[in-house]
Automatic annotation (TrEMBL):
Family, per entry: Belongs to the ComF/GntX family.
A Pfam family hit: Pribosyltran
UniProt feature coiled coil, ranges: none
Listed name of the protein: ComF operon protein 3
InterPro entries linked to this entry: ComF/GntX_DNA_util-trans (IPR051910), PRTase-like (IPR029057), PRTase_dom (IPR000836)
SUPFAM superfamilies in alphabetical order: PRTase-like
Signal peptide: none
Phosphoribosyltransferase domain residues: 166-229
Top-level taxon: Bacteria
Length: 230
């Protein structure tokens, strides 16, 4: 018997042959089938091509049109699941805010599948950082926990190390008005290397676009992004 970390319900994982040979399925037993069915998947055909927001069709959403108007090259973010639903919000509350590192295993396969196209083409993977205070309390970067066997580059640092107001505590307007939060610690010349930015959640896009702007300043090539949720 297992106990679901989201709802506390006890359940018996099915021990089929596929389950016995599939590490992914064993990891997903941290969450009961009822809760896992509550996660809302995003498909390519029904997502904004600029940010990955779930919608009807591939048209550009209002938020992405605003980024274009500001002169940004869209990141064409790909996301696996919808963030704004109870099961995913509870997942992140357990994973990030109570620091349950094991929950990172639940979506490792989903995230890895999103990277395959970029890995085959030798894109450089750059992770969005957490600030020093958060890292000391939690003990891990949540994005790294989703991709433990993938080489991720830490070319960005938070300028404000302690006392920073977290993104989750800001409203939409506050997030959009945040000045550049990062400093750059990677190679001074990226030599037109194509870069894939990795984060856990895409909300307004401001974090990813700040990161993108800094990388472009150091002669990057194309920049796209992948997140677990949108």
């Amino acid at each position: 018997m297992s106990e679901c970390v989201l709802c506390g319900r006890t359940f018996s994982p099915k021990l089929s042959l596929a389950r016995l040979v599939s590490l992914t399925k064993i990891k997903r037993s941290l969450i009961c089938p009822q809760c896992f069915a509550g996660f809302e998947k995003i498909t390519y055909a029904n997502a904004c091509w600029g940010c990955g927001r779930k919608q009807s069709g591939r048209t550009l959403c209002k938020d992405c049109r605003r980024w274009q108007q500001k002169g940004y090259e869209l990141l064409e973010n790909k996301a696996c699941y919808v963030y704004d639903e109870p099961h995913m919000k509870k997942y992140f509350a357990c994973y990030k805010f109570t620091g349950d590192y094991q929950l990172g295993t639940v979506f490792q396969t989903d995230m890895r599948q999103q990277l395959e196209w970029y890995l085959k083409r030798k894109w450089l993977l750059v992770v969005i950082p957490v600030d020093e205070e958060t890292y000391q309390k939690r003990g891990f970067n949540q994005v790294c926990g989703l991709l433990p066997q993938v080489k991720l580059n830490s070319y960005l640092r938070h300028r404000q190390k302690m006392g920073r107001k977290k993104q989750s505590h800001k409203n939409r307007q506050e997030r959009l008005q945040v000045p550049q939060p990062f400093s750059y610690v990677g190679p001074m010349d990226l030599k037109q290397q194509n870069i894939l930015l990795l984060d856990d959640i895409y909300t307004t896009g401001s974090t990813l676009y700040h990161a993108s702007a800094l990388l472009h300043e150091h002669n990057s090539g194309k920049i796209k992004s992948v997140t677990l949720a949108r």
